Amino acid sequence: xxxxxxxCHCGSVRFDVDAPATxxxxxxxxxxxxxxxxxxxxxxxxxFRLLQGEDSLETYTFNSHIAKHYFCRHCGIxxxxxxxxxxxxxxxxxxxxxxxxxxAINIHPFDGRNWEQNIAKLSPISx
Length: 127
Known about the structure:
Layout: E1 2-7, E2 14-19, E3 22-28, H1 31-36, E4 39-44, E5 48-52, E6 57-60, E7 68-72, E8 80-82, E9 89-93, E10 104-110, H2 115-118
Parallel strand pairs: 3-10
Antiparallel strand pairs: 1-2, 2-5, 3-4, 4-9, 6-7, 7-8, 8-9
């Protein structure tokens, strides 16, 4: 495991996350992921640490209101959120990670437009 750092565009929100150096990321085609460009790295809550910027975060929810989409109120970037698929985990936006610790990124498509039919295809996380 490697500790990766990341954050929003303006630097108000910073975090670190423990994950492999070669990242398996999920690219979802649902409406919000496609529009925001979120590339998922879903980790257990204990593998994610918010280092700064809690006071800069705003929350957006929709539909079932289970997912908690956090974005920086200064620059608008969603660098992580609590996903509906893994409510006890965190989905880090791989596009918001600092590149120094990443060896490679393997991108796997996910049909989030048909979420209910495909949710079982997402890998579970270990807590």
